[in-house]
Amino acid sequence: MAGVAITAVQKWFGSTHVIRGVDIAIADGEFCVLVGPSGCGKSTLLRMIAGLEEIGEGTIAIGGRVVNQIAPKERDIAMVFQNYALYPHMTVRDNLSFALRLAKRTTEDVEARVARAADILGLKDLLERYPRQLSGGQRQRVAMGRAIVRDPQVFLFDEPLSNLDAKLRVQMRTEIRELHQRLKTTSIYVTHDQIEAMTMADRIVVMRDGLVEQQGAPLELYDAPANTFVAGFIGSPAMNMVPGTVRGGREVEFAGGVRLPVPADARAEEGQSVLYGIRPEHCAPSDAGLPADVVVVEPTGADTQLYCRFGGQDFTAVVRDRTHVTPGERVMLRPDLKRSHLFDASTGRRLAA
Amino acid sequence: MSATNPPPAGEAAAAARIAESAAPAARSGDDVQGMRYLESRTRRLVTLYLPLGAFLFVLLFPFYWMAITTFKPNAELISREGNPFLVLDPTLAHLRKLLFDTAYPEWLWNTMLVAVTSTFLSIACSVLAAYAIERLRFRGSRYVGMSIFLAYLVPPSILFIPLAAVIQKLGLFDTRLALICTYPTFLIPFCTWLLMGYFRSIPFELEECALVDGASRWQILSRIILPLAVPGLISAGIFAFTLSWNEFIYALTFISSSEVKTVPVGVITELVEGDVYHWGSLMAGALMGSLPVAILYSFFVEYYVSGLTGAVKE
Asked: What are the tens digits of pLDDT across the range A195-225?
């Protein structure tokens, strides 16, 4: 096992600058999730770590060894692809053992490793089947088994769950996480799904337009987003951003003259244009606060989501208790000041005290 | 036709007929598939069986004609009496003449040898060419692909003139090797294009996965791509085999001795003497010459179709 150090990496496709200087240090045994909207460069970065794309500038080191000029097979990595990339003409057993046979391991060694991987993933009864005879979840497991048998220094996952249905995705998420706790192999996982990122990662790297927006533990990103992009990307439903102006140092005035106190940990200057960030789950109907007109009420059972309009923009609130609010009604939503944020309206940066 | 709109009268009657005919069909077996229940028997006859029958008749009639001519005695062949589509007094005389008075068995052997060798040679070259053009992504690979295709567009009826000079210079004139060397000039472009299309349908991820798994280019080609491209290889092989089996103009120009002739050339040059056509033996030669190809097709027809329609399914 080994850590991965990505230092000042850049990449161009023709004249398009897809990775614009990325630094990430992933510790040995860490489960790191690269997350971001499509086209942010996360898959390209993963492919550069795998050696499937040339590194434009900067270095990538695996276990202290710079791998820029090293072929994929020499990097001691295993990769799980989005569409699994199982060899259709080989049985599960042959799929699992392909890399080992290429490496000219002894027959006993190959058999032992395949048996162990099959045992871990519950594939024992499927070894003689072909990929086309497997369900989506089983294929996914074979793809992971193929990575496990090699006992590599780093696992790379390229959106491995996006071809599965919602229920199976949740189940496989837990399985991958459990597997990581068991094997403790450094893993780099690419996804565009922030829930996957939040639930699986030791460390999340949020990327946009070829740059790292913020990296840190999932709850760090949730509690203290560095800017409006991270704030809107992490958490579901997304954080509400209400534009306003700081008045009197301690209050923010919104359209229509409504005022709220400045959040507990924020500091802003008089007259500064700001975005007041409130997570839907951190505001509650009350007798005072933001007056919002309810448009749609969506009960999910556990909680109720209120889609409202306030000052000409959408505002979402999640209410834990059963509520009898009906569309068209006006509710007063009071944010939790300890968990709200202020962002600079022009730069998008969080204004922290 | 949506269920909510009332259908016009004519359609209603048709729908009733459909319902009538569909009911027993649905009962009669499990082989009724998809939307077939919507079609009446008359409709199927007109849209399916009649065109199919006409097509089959056009395609198979030459074979029938070859077969009956083979077994007709000469008297019947030239007679203006009677029904020309029947054989009244079958004879084996034409077959005997073909097999024992000409070098037909040798021609058959030559054709087989030339076709098989040039097919294998061409497939081997085409696999390498197609894989390189499709997957190695070298600078100008598209133009190489285009120029290989352009080579295919030069008609053999013109190309045989310069090729004859080359064959002469190489001292291969009047040998089977002359044909084995020249057939690939039209087989390789053809097979390369067919295989390029097939290789394109194999997902990139499979190769990348193999690359990460530690396979070299050669191992990727031999252990991943080729096994997956078997249907494509078979259809390319059948095409190449048929083209070289039927090839006429090169065989006619480059070969003069009877013992190295191929079937198409041998039959034409030795069973037509001046203006005398030995129809019976000619047709016997044609019939027997087409049998090996027919047998080959019947073995591989499933692969052949899937090879042409492409797509590797995971």
From this structure: 999 999 999 999 999 999 999 999 999 999 9
pLDDT at residue A11 tops 90: yes
- Within a domain: B84: no
Q: Which of B209, B219, B224 to mutate to test the interface with A (most CBs of A within 10 A)?
A: B209
What are the phi and psi torsion angles at B204 (to 5°)?
A: -60, -40
What does the alpha-carbon distance between residue B19 and residue B93 come to, in Å, rounded to a whole number? 58
**Which of A86, A89, A103 is facing B214, going by the closest CB pair?**
A103
Question: Contact B212/A88, CB-based, under 8 Å?
Answer: no
Residue B87 belongs to some domain of the structure: no
Cα distance between residue A116 and residue A121, in whole Å: 9
- Hey, is the C-beta of B123 within 8 angstroms of any chain A C-beta? no
Q: What is the pLDDT of residues A256-291, one digit of tens each?
A: 888 999 998 888 888 899 999 999 999 988 888 889
Cβ-contact B221, A104 below 8 angstroms: no
Q: Inter-chain contact B212–A51, Cβ cutoff 8 Å?
A: yes
Minimum CA–CA partner of B206 in chain A:
A85
Task: Write down the residue that tokens 């060694």 correspond to.
Answer: A109
- In the structure encoding, which two tokens stand for residue B60, read together? 């198979």
User: Is B205 an 8 Å CB contact of chain A?
Assistant: yes
Q: What is the mean pLDDT of chain B?
A: 84
Domain CATH for B196: 1.10.3720.10
Report the sign of the C-alpha dihedral through residues A179, A181, A184, A187, in that order. Answer: positive
Whole-model pTM: value is: 0.81
Same domain, B71 and B119: no
Does B68 share its domain with B137?
no
Q: What angle do CA B186, B191, B197 make, to 5 degrees?
A: 140
CB B311 within 8 A of CB B203: no
Element (H, E) at A273: strand A273-278
Residue A81 touches partner B, C-beta closer than 8 Å: yes
Task: Say which residues have a Cβ less than 8 Å from residue A268's Cβ, sequence separation at least 6.
Answer: A246, A252, A262, A274, A342, A351
Q: Looking at beta carbons, which residues of chain B come within 8 Å of A131?
A: 314
Of A156, A140, A139, which Cα lies nearest the Cα of A48? A156
Domain extent at residue B214: 95-312
Q: Given the DSSP bridges, would you call strands A186-191 and A154-158 parallel, antiparallel or unpaired? A: parallel
Taking a contact as any Cβ pair under 8 Å apart, which residues of chain B between 210 and 249 contact chain A? Answer: 210-215, 219, 223-224, 227-228
Across the interface, do B212 and A73 touch by the CB < 8 Å criterion? yes
| Angle, CA of A105, A110 and A115, to the nearest 5° | 165
Do B185 and B211 share a domain, yes or no? yes
ipTM: 0.85
Q: What are B244-297's pLDDT values in tens digits?
A: 999 999 999 999 999 999 999 999 999 998 888 999 999 999 999 988 888 888
Residues 133-152 of A with CB under 8 A from B: 146, 150
